[in-house]
Design a protein that fits this description.
By secondary structure, this protein is mainly β. Helix content is 4%, strand content 39%. The longest helix has 7 residues, at 93-99.
Length: 173
């Protein structure tokens, strides 16, 4: 069981979109807790604090992400992940295809001992400015069992296991 603490009363609890969904949806939380600035980085790797105090015609707060910016979107949630598990955060396919919003780190990993607010690291991978509103589903997550393993140095190179000869396209297109 994955427990979730609402750090912000305006946060939206994750939920599964359908009965057969492998992942749960994670939503943006852009209201409450004196939230006025969002940490982001420009395409030139400059730290930029974006305003998060714009409101649309329904009085819903939103943030507009410039092209090629990377932004930490708050969720207002803390995941209480059981020991021996992690939460993997993935991009939403529709946002990636239609708007160019992807995860800047391609897959987020939340360890079971991380007990701070979850942020989703979004990158606007398009030439257009993209708007995210409070409550928008911005990512999807899944609870994953972690393997218990150790790392040790070996002193002999690994032996050939298959007929593979190389990498980076060596097996064909």
């Amino acid at each position: 069981m994955l427990k979730i603490f609402k750090l912000n009363q305006n946060a939206i609890l994750p939920c599964f979109g359908t009965d057969q969904s492998a992942c749960f949806d994670i939503s943006a939380c852009l209201v409450g807790n004196n939230l006025s600035k969002i940490k982001s980085y420009s395409s030139m790797n400059e730290l930029v604090e974006l305003d998060c105090c714009s409101f649309d015609e329904q009085n819903t707060p939103y943030i507009t992400i410039p092209s090629w910016f990377r932004v930490l979107i708050p969720t207002g949630l803390i995941f209480d992940i059981p020991q021996g598990y992690s939460v993997r955060v993935h991009a939403r396919s529709g946002l990636a295809l239609k708007q160019g919003l992807v995860l800047a780190n391609h897959e987020g990993v939340i360890d079971s001992d991380y007990i701070q607010e979850c942020f989703v690291m979004i990158k606007n991978d398009s030439f257009n400015r993209v708007t995210i509103k409070h409550g928008d589903r911005i990512a999807q997550g899944e609870l994953v069992k972690s393997l218990d393993y150790s790392i040790e140095q070996c002193y002999n190179a690994p032996s050939q296991k298959t007929n593979r000869n190389g990498g980076f396209g060596s097996t064909g297109v």
